[in-house]
Amino acid sequence: MAEEFVSEAITPVTGTFDPGGMARGEPGLPQRFVWRGQEYTVAAVLAVWKEDGSCRHGSGEKYLRKHWFKIATAQGPQMTLYFERQARSKQQNKMRWWLYTIDREKPLG
Q: Could you say which DSSP state residue 23 is in?
């Protein structure tokens, strides 16, 4: 089995956000986060990309929707994370970081 689709929220560990990304006006990738009760540490950032989309009100403008990060973790698996610039709902306002996929067969190294 290769990459598994997950699509679940992760909880960043407070104080571990990358200040470089934040200085550029981008989300600071958390260096540690919790998923399903286990803490993971980012060992390497393998790829970074952005996703944009059309305005939802009918104008022709484009808006940045998501920031994507392909990472290797110190615990082994590679993961694809993303940050949503706009919360899905008021109830999910704090849920901006998501684990999209996990690949347990591609450890760092």
A: H
